[in-house]
Amino acid sequence: MEELAVKVVISGPYNLVSYGLLPFVAGALAAIFVPKSELRLARGTYVFAIGLAGLVHALCFFSWAHTAEAIVAGRAWMLMLDAASAWFALGLVLALLAVARSYDAYGHAQGAVLAFIPIANLWLIFSRSRDKSGAVFPWFAKGFVGVVLGLVLATSGNAVTKQILEDRVSSILDSKTFPGETYAQFLVNNWGLRDALDNIFNFDGKPFDVDFTTTLVDMDVEGTTVSFFYRLGALGTMFGVSESSIKANACDTPLVLTLLRAGATFKHVFKDKNGRDVSVVTVRRGDCES
Asked: Distance of CA 30 to CAs 22, 25, 37, 50, 71, Å?
Protein backbone atom coordinates (compact mmCIF):
# COMPACT_ATOMS: atom_id res chain seq x y z
CA MET A 1 0.00 0.00 0.00
CA GLU A 2 2.91 2.33 0.73
CA GLU A 3 4.17 2.01 -2.84
CA LEU A 4 0.77 3.02 -4.21
CA ALA A 5 0.59 5.87 -1.70
CA VAL A 6 3.98 7.25 -2.79
CA LYS A 7 2.84 7.15 -6.42
CA VAL A 8 -0.26 9.15 -5.51
CA VAL A 9 1.50 11.62 -3.22
CA ILE A 10 4.21 12.60 -5.75
CA SER A 11 1.69 13.10 -8.57
CA GLY A 12 1.26 16.42 -10.31
CA PRO A 13 -1.54 18.80 -9.21
CA TYR A 14 -3.96 17.72 -11.94
CA ASN A 15 -3.46 14.03 -11.21
CA LEU A 16 -4.01 14.68 -7.52
CA VAL A 17 -7.43 16.11 -8.36
CA SER A 18 -8.23 13.11 -10.57
CA TYR A 19 -7.27 10.74 -7.73
CA GLY A 20 -9.66 12.63 -5.46
CA LEU A 21 -12.55 12.26 -7.89
CA LEU A 22 -13.51 8.72 -6.81
CA PRO A 23 -13.83 9.44 -3.05
CA PHE A 24 -15.55 12.74 -3.90
CA VAL A 25 -18.21 10.96 -5.97
CA ALA A 26 -18.51 8.29 -3.27
CA GLY A 27 -19.15 11.00 -0.69
CA ALA A 28 -21.78 12.65 -2.86
CA LEU A 29 -23.56 9.32 -3.37
CA ALA A 30 -23.37 8.58 0.34
CA ALA A 31 -25.57 11.62 0.91
CA ILE A 32 -28.45 9.57 -0.52
CA PHE A 33 -28.42 7.44 2.63
CA VAL A 34 -28.20 10.34 5.07
CA PRO A 35 -31.57 11.23 6.62
CA LYS A 36 -32.71 14.57 5.19
CA SER A 37 -33.15 17.38 7.65
CA GLU A 38 -35.58 20.27 7.53
CA LEU A 39 -32.72 22.65 6.72
CA ARG A 40 -33.33 25.05 3.83
CA LEU A 41 -30.63 27.22 2.32
CA ALA A 42 -31.35 30.46 0.49
CA ARG A 43 -29.02 31.68 -2.23
CA GLY A 44 -26.65 33.76 -0.14
CA THR A 45 -26.37 31.19 2.63
CA TYR A 46 -25.73 28.44 0.10
CA VAL A 47 -22.81 30.31 -1.49
CA PHE A 48 -21.42 31.12 1.95
CA ALA A 49 -21.63 27.45 3.00
CA ILE A 50 -19.90 26.26 -0.20
CA GLY A 51 -17.06 28.72 0.32
CA LEU A 52 -16.65 27.64 3.94
CA ALA A 53 -16.63 23.96 2.93
CA GLY A 54 -13.96 24.69 0.32
CA LEU A 55 -11.72 26.44 2.86
CA VAL A 56 -12.07 23.66 5.43
CA HIS A 57 -11.33 21.10 2.70
CA ALA A 58 -8.13 22.96 1.78
CA LEU A 59 -7.00 23.08 5.42
CA CYS A 60 -7.39 19.30 5.63
CA PHE A 61 -4.32 19.01 3.38
CA PHE A 62 -2.03 20.84 5.79
CA SER A 63 -0.11 17.61 6.46
CA TRP A 64 0.89 17.52 2.78
CA ALA A 65 3.29 20.38 3.42
CA HIS A 66 5.46 17.69 5.05
CA THR A 67 5.38 15.24 2.15
CA ALA A 68 9.12 14.49 2.17
CA GLU A 69 9.17 13.59 5.85
CA ALA A 70 6.15 11.32 5.44
CA ILE A 71 7.65 9.41 2.49
CA VAL A 72 11.04 8.98 4.15
CA ALA A 73 9.30 7.68 7.30
CA GLY A 74 7.20 5.24 5.24
CA ARG A 75 3.96 7.04 6.06
CA ALA A 76 2.83 8.24 2.66
CA TRP A 77 -0.26 6.09 3.18
CA MET A 78 -1.35 8.50 5.92
CA LEU A 79 -1.28 11.40 3.44
CA MET A 80 -3.27 9.35 0.93
CA LEU A 81 -5.83 8.43 3.60
CA ASP A 82 -6.00 12.07 4.67
CA ALA A 83 -6.67 13.17 1.09
CA ALA A 84 -9.26 10.45 0.44
CA SER A 85 -11.12 11.35 3.64
CA ALA A 86 -11.08 15.06 2.78
CA TRP A 87 -12.44 14.47 -0.72
CA PHE A 88 -15.11 12.07 0.57
CA ALA A 89 -16.22 14.59 3.20
CA LEU A 90 -16.32 17.39 0.62
CA GLY A 91 -18.54 15.35 -1.70
CA LEU A 92 -20.87 14.46 1.17
CA VAL A 93 -21.13 18.03 2.48
CA LEU A 94 -21.66 19.61 -0.94
CA ALA A 95 -24.38 17.07 -1.73
CA LEU A 96 -26.21 17.77 1.54
CA LEU A 97 -25.91 21.52 0.95
CA ALA A 98 -27.28 21.07 -2.55
CA VAL A 99 -30.24 19.12 -1.20
CA ALA A 100 -31.03 21.92 1.26
CA ARG A 101 -30.78 24.48 -1.55
CA SER A 102 -33.00 22.36 -3.81
CA TYR A 103 -35.69 22.09 -1.14
CA ASP A 104 -35.55 25.85 -0.63
CA ALA A 105 -35.81 26.62 -4.34
CA TYR A 106 -38.04 23.82 -5.70
CA GLY A 107 -39.60 22.05 -2.73
CA HIS A 108 -37.90 18.73 -3.49
CA ALA A 109 -34.41 17.18 -3.48
CA GLN A 110 -34.11 16.30 -7.18
CA GLY A 111 -32.60 19.66 -8.07
CA ALA A 112 -29.50 18.82 -5.98
CA VAL A 113 -27.95 17.05 -8.94
CA LEU A 114 -27.58 20.44 -10.66
CA ALA A 115 -24.85 21.32 -8.16
CA PHE A 116 -22.51 18.82 -9.84
CA ILE A 117 -23.17 19.91 -13.43
CA PRO A 118 -21.03 22.82 -14.70
CA ILE A 119 -23.05 25.88 -15.74
CA ALA A 120 -26.30 24.14 -14.68
CA ASN A 121 -25.18 24.64 -11.07
CA LEU A 122 -25.71 28.38 -11.58
CA TRP A 123 -29.42 27.70 -12.04
CA LEU A 124 -29.50 26.07 -8.61
CA ILE A 125 -27.57 28.94 -7.06
CA PHE A 126 -29.71 31.75 -8.47
CA SER A 127 -33.16 30.17 -8.17
CA ARG A 128 -35.40 32.15 -5.83
CA SER A 129 -36.58 30.73 -2.52
CA ARG A 130 -40.12 29.33 -2.49
CA ASP A 131 -40.63 30.19 1.16
CA LYS A 132 -38.90 33.12 2.86
CA SER A 133 -39.47 31.59 6.30
CA GLY A 134 -36.83 29.09 7.28
CA ALA A 135 -33.78 28.62 9.44
CA VAL A 136 -32.34 31.82 10.84
CA PHE A 137 -28.67 32.42 10.00
CA PRO A 138 -26.26 35.19 11.10
CA TRP A 139 -26.42 38.33 8.98
CA PHE A 140 -22.98 37.67 7.47
CA ALA A 141 -24.07 34.25 6.17
CA LYS A 142 -27.03 35.32 4.06
CA GLY A 143 -28.04 37.66 1.29
CA PHE A 144 -25.50 39.71 -0.64
CA VAL A 145 -23.05 39.67 2.26
CA GLY A 146 -23.20 35.87 2.36
CA VAL A 147 -22.39 35.69 -1.36
CA VAL A 148 -19.41 38.03 -1.00
CA LEU A 149 -18.04 36.22 2.05
CA GLY A 150 -18.60 32.88 0.34
CA LEU A 151 -16.48 34.01 -2.60
CA VAL A 152 -13.82 35.32 -0.20
CA LEU A 153 -13.75 31.98 1.62
CA ALA A 154 -13.49 30.06 -1.65
CA THR A 155 -10.63 32.30 -2.81
CA SER A 156 -8.90 31.81 0.54
CA GLY A 157 -9.26 28.05 0.11
CA ASN A 158 -7.55 28.24 -3.28
CA ALA A 159 -4.75 30.33 -1.79
CA VAL A 160 -4.26 27.82 1.03
CA THR A 161 -4.16 24.94 -1.46
CA LYS A 162 -1.57 26.75 -3.60
CA GLN A 163 0.62 27.45 -0.57
CA ILE A 164 0.42 23.85 0.64
CA LEU A 165 1.42 22.58 -2.81
CA GLU A 166 4.38 24.99 -2.83
CA ASP A 167 5.42 23.83 0.65
CA ARG A 168 5.09 20.24 -0.57
CA VAL A 169 7.57 20.94 -3.37
CA SER A 170 9.94 22.76 -1.03
CA SER A 171 9.90 19.92 1.51
CA ILE A 172 11.07 17.52 -1.20
CA LEU A 173 13.63 19.83 -2.81
CA ASP A 174 15.17 20.62 0.58
CA SER A 175 15.19 17.03 1.83
CA LYS A 176 18.62 15.41 2.24
CA THR A 177 17.32 11.85 2.63
CA PHE A 178 14.65 11.68 -0.06
CA PRO A 179 15.02 8.62 -2.38
CA GLY A 180 16.63 9.69 -5.67
CA GLU A 181 14.26 7.86 -7.99
CA THR A 182 11.20 9.17 -6.14
CA TYR A 183 12.67 12.68 -6.26
CA ALA A 184 13.12 12.37 -10.03
CA GLN A 185 9.59 11.09 -10.56
CA PHE A 186 8.21 13.89 -8.42
CA LEU A 187 9.98 16.53 -10.53
CA VAL A 188 8.81 14.91 -13.77
CA ASN A 189 5.21 14.78 -12.52
CA ASN A 190 5.13 18.36 -11.27
CA TRP A 191 7.54 20.25 -13.54
CA GLY A 192 7.78 18.16 -16.68
CA LEU A 193 10.78 16.18 -17.94
CA ARG A 194 12.80 19.10 -19.32
CA ASP A 195 12.72 21.18 -16.13
CA ALA A 196 13.37 18.05 -14.07
CA LEU A 197 16.54 17.34 -16.03
CA ASP A 198 17.68 20.96 -15.69
CA ASN A 199 17.23 20.73 -11.93
CA ILE A 200 18.93 17.38 -11.43
CA PHE A 201 21.88 17.78 -13.80
CA ASN A 202 23.17 21.17 -12.79
CA PHE A 203 26.91 21.06 -13.57
CA ASP A 204 29.09 23.42 -11.55
CA GLY A 205 31.80 23.61 -14.21
CA LYS A 206 34.49 21.82 -12.18
CA PRO A 207 36.12 18.78 -13.86
CA PHE A 208 35.50 15.51 -12.05
CA ASP A 209 37.74 12.44 -12.22
CA VAL A 210 35.62 9.39 -13.02
CA ASP A 211 38.65 7.08 -12.85
CA PHE A 212 42.40 7.35 -13.36
CA THR A 213 42.05 7.81 -17.14
CA THR A 214 38.70 9.55 -17.54
CA THR A 215 37.60 13.04 -16.45
CA LEU A 216 34.11 14.49 -16.72
CA VAL A 217 34.70 18.01 -18.07
CA ASP A 218 31.24 19.23 -19.02
CA MET A 219 27.55 18.43 -18.94
CA ASP A 220 24.76 19.83 -21.07
CA VAL A 221 20.97 19.50 -21.02
CA GLU A 222 19.19 20.20 -24.27
CA GLY A 223 15.50 19.40 -24.36
CA THR A 224 15.17 15.88 -22.98
CA THR A 225 18.77 14.87 -23.77
CA VAL A 226 21.52 15.00 -21.16
CA SER A 227 25.04 14.95 -22.61
CA PHE A 228 28.17 14.12 -20.59
CA PHE A 229 31.54 15.08 -22.03
CA TYR A 230 34.65 13.20 -20.92
CA ARG A 231 38.36 13.77 -21.55
CA LEU A 232 40.49 10.66 -21.76
CA GLY A 233 44.06 10.34 -20.56
CA ALA A 234 47.24 10.63 -22.57
CA LEU A 235 46.68 7.32 -24.34
CA GLY A 236 43.18 8.31 -25.41
CA THR A 237 41.86 4.88 -24.51
CA MET A 238 38.72 3.91 -22.58
CA PHE A 239 40.11 1.52 -19.97
CA GLY A 240 37.44 -0.66 -18.33
CA VAL A 241 34.64 1.28 -20.01
CA SER A 242 32.48 -0.09 -22.80
CA GLU A 243 29.13 0.69 -24.36
CA SER A 244 27.53 -2.29 -22.63
CA SER A 245 28.91 -1.34 -19.19
CA ILE A 246 27.69 2.27 -19.55
CA LYS A 247 24.20 1.12 -20.51
CA ALA A 248 24.12 -1.50 -17.76
CA ASN A 249 25.17 1.08 -15.17
CA ALA A 250 22.43 3.49 -16.35
CA CYS A 251 19.76 0.81 -16.16
CA ASP A 252 20.94 -0.24 -12.70
CA THR A 253 20.78 3.31 -11.33
CA PRO A 254 17.20 3.94 -10.06
CA LEU A 255 17.25 7.72 -10.62
CA VAL A 256 18.56 7.39 -14.19
CA LEU A 257 16.17 4.54 -14.96
CA THR A 258 13.23 6.64 -13.76
CA LEU A 259 14.23 9.45 -16.12
CA LEU A 260 14.79 7.05 -19.02
CA ARG A 261 11.29 5.66 -18.54
CA ALA A 262 9.98 9.24 -18.58
CA GLY A 263 11.54 9.76 -22.02
CA ALA A 264 15.01 11.12 -21.29
CA THR A 265 18.09 10.29 -23.36
CA PHE A 266 21.63 10.14 -21.98
CA LYS A 267 24.60 10.69 -24.27
CA HIS A 268 28.19 10.00 -23.16
CA VAL A 269 30.81 11.64 -25.38
CA PHE A 270 34.45 10.61 -24.91
CA LYS A 271 37.20 12.79 -26.40
CA ASP A 272 40.97 12.54 -26.43
CA LYS A 273 43.26 15.25 -25.07
CA ASN A 274 43.07 17.07 -28.43
CA GLY A 275 39.27 17.23 -28.38
CA ARG A 276 38.67 14.55 -31.01
CA ASP A 277 35.76 12.16 -30.50
CA VAL A 278 36.84 8.69 -29.44
CA SER A 279 33.42 7.21 -28.71
CA VAL A 280 29.80 8.27 -28.28
CA VAL A 281 27.44 6.09 -26.26
CA THR A 282 23.72 6.90 -26.23
CA VAL A 283 21.37 5.37 -23.67
CA ARG A 284 17.62 5.32 -24.27
CA ARG A 285 14.64 3.72 -22.60
CA GLY A 286 14.70 0.72 -24.94
CA ASP A 287 18.20 -0.20 -23.77
CA CYS A 288 16.80 -1.07 -20.35
CA GLU A 289 13.88 -3.11 -21.63
CA SER A 290 15.75 -5.74 -23.58
From this structure: 12, 8, 15, 18, 31
Query: DSSP state, 35?
Result: P
Sign of the CA dihedral with 241 first, then 247, 251, and 255 last: positive
pLDDT in tens, 226-247: 999 888 876 656 665 778 888 8
pLDDT in tens, 184-217: 888 888 888 998 898 888 777 778 877 777 888 8
Overall size of the chain counted in residues = 290
For residue 11, pLDDT beyond 90: no
HSE-up of residue 67 (Cα within 13 Å, Cβ side): 27
Phi, psi (rounded to 5 degrees) for 250: -65, -45
pLDDT tens-digit readout, 107-140: 888 889 999 999 988 999 888 888 765 557 777 8
- 222 DSSP β-pair partners: 225
Backbone conformation region of residue 238, classed left if phi is above 0, alpha if psi is from -120 to 50, else beta: beta
Report the distance separating Cα 7 and Cα 76, nearest Å.
Answer: 9
Residue type, 240: G
pLDDT of residue 29: 94
For residue 9, which of 182, 256, 257, 194 has the smallest C-alpha distance?
A: 182
pTM attached to this predicted model: 0.72
Q: 231, 278 in Cβ contact below 8 A?
A: no
Distance in angstroms (rounded) separating the CA atoms of residues 103 and 110: 9
Q: How far apart are CA 95 and CA 150, in angstroms?
A: 17
How much helix, strand and coil, in percent to the nearest 5, is found in the chain? Answer: 60, 10, 30
- What count of Cα atoms within 13 Å lies in the side-chain half-sphere of residue 216? 15
Residues with Cβ < 8 Å from 154, sequence gap 6 or more? 50, 51, 54, 55
